[in-house]
Amino acid sequence: SPQLIQAIGKGISEIPNNNIRAAVVAQLFGSRQVDIFEMRTTKELAERGVQKRPYFDPETGEQVNPERGSRKQAGPTKVMPPVTAELMKKMHSKASVTGEMFPDLTNKKIDDALKQYVFKAIPKNVLDRLDKAPSTFTDLRRITAAFVLNQLGDPQSASEIISHKGNLDDKIDKVMLKFYADQDDKNILKRTQGLVLFEKELAKGLGV
């Protein structure tokens, strides 16, 4: 429900570390955690090293994803939704000469912040539907993806994601990527509206 997303947003807003708070919001909108950790400010900096990294273009508001040979593709380049784009622009402007937009982050730092501030804010009736108490970022993505599916009128898939015990990363990626559909997608308007609603509710909770 919108109340759930607002509760999550309010919990996120209470995370005191700016880097962690921004990374959590960016990840909710379909960026893989590994890509957030690796995100750079320019194409040149993103292409240094063995593995090409994504970068954020503040002019277009896009997360530009590289072509990769590995199994973990970063997915298509995508325009970030308004609240997330503003957040990314802020992180971009604060980045050091290395171009790291989210420096010094680890999975543990993010999971610890979620446990301390965000999961406590989730209503009990939602927690009761999960197979175990949420403790990692993947759990937050499951809850979020279920909300998204409900908004798109697919409660059956939402229920599957909430109650599933295995690794759901790829399935959740597909759900979140529905919001970044191709131009010829018949459902693009519905999906864009769903994304705007989701972000609007999250923004209310974040006080943006």
Summarize this structure as a short list of keywords or feature phrases.
208 residues; mainly alpha
Structure, described:
The chain has 208 residues and is mainly alpha-helical. 55% of the residues lie in helices and 4% in strands. The protein is built from 11 helices and 3 strands. The chain has a 3-stranded antiparallel sheet. A hairpin with a 4-residue loop joins strand 1 and strand 2. Helix 1 packs across helix 11, helix 2 packs antiparallel against helix 5 and helix 8 crosses helix 10. It is globular, with a radius of gyration of 16 Å.
TL;DR?
The protein is mainly alpha-helical and 208 residues long. Helices cover 55% and strands 4% of the residues.
Topology, please?
Blueprint: H1 2-13, H2 18-28, H3 33-38, H4 43-46, E1 55-57, E2 62-64, E3 78-79, H5 82-94, H6 107-118, H7 124-127, H8 137-151, H9 155-163, H10 169-177, H11 188-206
Antiparallel strand pairs: 1-2, 2-3
